Amino acid sequence: MDIEVKNLHPLEVKLLRHVSAGEDITAERLVNELDYKIGQCNQAFSWLTAKGCISEKSREKYTLYELTETGLQQAESGLPAERIFASLAENGPQSLPTLAESLGLQQSDVGSAFGLLSGSRTAAMNEEKKAELLSSELPEEIRIQRTLLDRAKTAGLLKEAELSDKERQAISKLAKKRGAGSATFKQVEKEDVVYVLTEKGSEVKQALLKANITGEEFGQLTAQMIQTGSWKNGTFRPYGLNAPVSRLIPGRTNAYADYLQWVKDKLVSLGFEEYDGPLVVNEFWNGDALFMPQFHSARDIHDVYYVKDPSHCRKIEEPWLSRVAKTHEDGGDTGSRGWGYSFDHEFTRRQILRSQGTVLSATQLPKAKIPGKYFGIARCFRYDQVDATHGADFYQTEGIVVGKDVNLRNLLGLLKMFAKEVAGAEEVKYVPGYFPFTEPSIEVHIKHPVLGWFELGGSGIFRPEVTKSLGLDVPVLAWGLGIDRMALMHLGLNDLRELFTPDIESVRMRRGN
Amino acid sequence: MPKIEVPEKLFFSLAGREYTDDEMNDIFPVAKAELDGREEGSIKIELNDTNRPDLWSVAGVARALKTYESGEIPEYNFFSSASKAMDCGGRVHIDDESALGIRDFSISFAADGCRVTEDLLVNLIQSQEKLCQNFGRKRKTIAIGIFRSDLIKYPVHYYGADPDKTAFVPLGMTEKLTLREILEKHPKGKEYGHIIADKPRYPYLTDDEGETLSFSPIINSARAGAVQVGDENLFVDISGPIIDDILLAASILACDMADLGFRILPVKVTLARDTKYGREITVPYYFQQETSCTLDFVEKELGLKLSAQECIDALRRMGVRASVKDDVITVRCPEYRNDFLHAVDIVEDIMIGHGLGRFEPVMPSDFTLGYLSGAEEYSRKVKKIMVGLGFQEMMYNYLGSRKEYVENMHISDEKVVFIANPMSENYEVVRPSILPSLLESESVSGHAVYPHRIFELGKVCYKDDSDNSGTVTKNNLGFLAADNQIGFNEASSYVNTLLYFLRIDYTLEPADGDQRFIEGRAARVISGGRQIGVYGEVHPQVLESWGCSMPAVMAEFDLDLMH
After folding, report:
1. Do A308 and B419 touch (CB under 8 A)?
2. Is residue B366, in this structure, part of any structural domain at all?
3. Could you tell me if B451 and B480 are in contact, meaning their C-beta atoms sit under 8 angstroms apart?
4. How many angstroms separate the CA of residue A342 from the nearest CA in chain B?
5. Which residues contact B400 (CB under 8 A, 6 or more apart)?
6. Among the four residues A154, A361, B381, B417, which has the most C-beta atoms within 10 Å?
């Protein structure tokens, strides 16, 4: 037997225990004998049919008429036609509005009831536009309706099959299937289904009896049961473990934020201190301080967003402005020959949206501790068409290592550690790179277990033109990691725009790996 | 980053050997190049070093690879220098003072001995374009014209010409136009005209008989400037305002053309004013200065002790001649380069020449303490409370449209930071508040089961006179809850709970006049005499603007004022 009897619902258990093979099982019977509600009968029938414990023996459709609220009232105080007939008989001819008012009926009801009376020549309109009776007897149809009302009042409902033809005709004028509020009767289509116990049903019944399952086991444990100790007098019904679960919507952190937090924690654990800064920066810190010549192509109007107002900041901090300007012009005291052009003091104050996280490193340099390690995950803005691989704004992860004796081999060591600790890669490859503010410059490529070889980031030793101008006479290693690709993979996504999606459902369901 | 496309056959013949894709991937990094693709006999290469314009051509990349592999530095014997001028063979080029202040310099050299083929022409034009576009800042500082020298009678003359009285037939057209008409009508005139448009005279190059060569930096003449397959005698002119830049561009082109098989013929140029190289220069001209670096500095930078010979060998593979005396390396910059600004530039070439793979990684040994920023610590604390209150954390872009950040919010744009050069109106404003981001979520998430409870911890930016930048960036918390039955009381409960656990005492004041909220159902949150936040029932006009149909409450707090 494939049915676990202890998993049966009490409604099923009680039904099975109650009936015997060969007996008719109907809803009426369960209502009377087991005190089921109609809904409970239907539940038990559908579950047991699905399990093959009962089967349908016969099915019969029929029509019922139930008295509505209106009908009940009319059974007491009369149909509109009856009341008009009585009033005319008692008070003589009256106009229809007078009748409506005195009987408390709607004008429209009075109109249709008078139509009925005049149609059967029981009443007519006289020359004074008043209704007067022509006959002392109500028409047959109304008399039939009256007997139907009286019968329905005692029986509660009338079965169509038990009505004569004339009665059927009469009741059809008083009944409606839907929206029967103002009608006398509500017409209801019903079905009588008779079930019988199947062979399997009998087996299940035997199993139930044997297991002594009565259907009276406890369901929900209540506070009252604990307080009164009533739970001691019975057993608990076991629940189906694989029932469908209902959905909960928890408060949750964002999976992408979790990833960035993980990276931050990792870097802090490696001895880095976090820095941060404003979204609006000036050309000085975003580029000039990094020894990017003012005419550099990456500083073009097509590469950075200019702030409309205020278009320029008021001033650039000294002595950095003078020192940096001199370095651009002839190298200053940095040991460089500089770019050999005349530094534009207006351009340097121009305000832009931060285009690279390195601006944070530049502003950190004048106040950096020696030795010191710093990092930031900075939102940056670049003049790009928005698509699957370019966002309107995006995060860059960058940092610096300041130390008297740091050198290229330390930089490689650092990159190797990031590859392992942050990206989970074992194989690392270094290639020469180019960044305007570092020399030497190194790109690090890693072999990721899933993504294969790709560029993890760029790095280098800050040019002395950068560090010395900003008052640091020690080498500074600078690095940036492209963690977006790993974030996407971590989240099972392949479109950068998804990282900042406003779609609540999509964020709710997102999981990290 | 410049990208070039080179014919495989020409590239391999210049490089002296053939390469497979894998071999190219391995060797290209010595030129900071990347293999960008390979198809039907052509190779795409991306060049990363914006300070090495010599690499932006088929000959340049091939030269770098060949030198690296062979360790042999190519010889170019046609350069003049301060100490020695080559014979110009009667080729003379005179810059007139009338060009000063307009586009100061024009220089040139000539070449012969090689028949121009289709491949060669395409590559010559490509190198010329890369130099003018990337190195020459879109022709602002470098413009190059290549001409058929058969048609030229020396000396050539460069001067400032009257824009309205000077006329010629420009390349790509058939009728004679004045210089000013060219700016208005010719596609190149429209593209580059702005460089000289407001000058009283326009830069102009002719030969001695008045035959037009070019209206520099705009367009060549249709006659002398129409170089074709089959031509053998060429004349190259370079104009611009910075003498070093145009000399370098001339050197790069001359070396490239020499590599391609041309004989380079020097031209004696008389400049319109004195320069650090004098007024008379024979071009191509070696102008670079020696640079030097100590062996100690190399060791300090690279973390590895290299001998004098190792440094010299490494530099030779980079095409750089060097000598060492008293532990000082003196470097002679190759003719086609000018990127040794500082000793560190020598160090990098030594690093690449020595082979990056030969440097063993070592961890920095300094001990430092790691810290999160105060703002990050505080925002994590807030995040925990919000999640506990049943809110989903969201993350949003910081750029949006005026419609989203201003109009839909029914606020004034007085404090809003706009972008002066937006790429599209969808991204022209930096968000002044987190609330529009949350409402955008609400507007696209009607399908998500209610209630919606969302928040973000992020940055906002708005105008603030007290700062040097006139703006301020703040770390804010924003949250929003939307459901059939929600109102000010729920919002108050959230705010109260949040601020209780953050240990913030506060009072409320009516937020009258704030059109984002229903009047009388919004509060300013005051603590320590300052407004730290605002919250309330979202005004239906705001919901309607966003196309939201569910009632909502929202709040925003300035976290920088709270910790």
Report:
1. yes
2. no
3. no
4. 12
5. B426, B427, B429, B431, B436, B437, B440
6. A361
A179 falls in which pLDDT band (50, 70, 90)?
low
Per-residue confidence (pLDDT) for residue B109, from 0 to 100: 97
> Is B392 close to A254, i.e. CB distance below 8 A?
yes
Write down which residue in B313, B330, B356 finishes a domain.
B356
**Domain match, B509 and B420 both:** yes
Percent of chain B with pLDDT over 90: 93
Q: Assign A334 a pLDDT band (cuts: 50, 70, 90).
A: very high
Query: Do A298 and A154 share a structural domain?
Result: no
Domain that holds residue B57: 3-70
**Kind of pairing between the strands at B143-148 and B263-265:** unpaired
Looking at residue B44, which CATH number applies to its domain?
A: 3.30.56.10
User: For chain B, how many residues are written?
Assistant: 563
Is B459 in the A-facing interface, judged by CB distances under 8 Å?
yes
Four-residue CA torsion sign, A218, A220, A221, A222: negative
Whole domain around residue A76: which residue ranges?
Answer: 67-190
Question: Assign residue A242 a region: left if phi > 0, alpha if psi is -120 to 50, beta otherwise?
Answer: alpha
Candidates A393, A401, A441; nearest CB to B398 = A393
Q: Per the structure block, which two tokens stand in for B363?
A: 């961890």
Paired tokens of A426: 């074992």
Q: Indicate whether B103 pLDDT > 90.
A: yes
B186 and B49 belong to one structural domain: no
Give yes or no for B420 touching A (CB within 8 A). yes
Say whether B417 and A409 touch across the interface (CB within 8 A): no
The token pair at A164 is 């004569």
CA distances from A177 to A109, A149, A172, A411 (A): 20, 17, 10, 85
Q: What's the rounded mean pLDDT across residues A374-386?
A: 91
DSSP E strands in A324-469: the ranges are 351-353, 372-381, 393-402, 427-432, 438-448, 452-462
| Interface check B32 vs A, CB under 8 A | yes
* Backbone CA torsion sign across A426, A429, A434, A440: positive
Q: Residue A33 phi/psi, 5° resolution?
A: -95, -30
User: In this predicted model, what pLDDT tens digit does every residue of A396-414 receive, in sequence order?
Assistant: 999 999 999 999 999 999 9
Among B88, B351, B361, B26, smallest CA distance to A439 is for: B351
Same domain, B131 and B181: yes
DSSP, collapsed to helix, strand or coil, labels residue A360 as: helix
Question: Nearest to residue A168, comparing CAs of A185, A193, A155?
Answer: A185
Same domain, B489 and B409: yes
pLDDT tens for A266-282 read 999 999 999 999 999 99
Cα distance between the two ends of chain B = 44
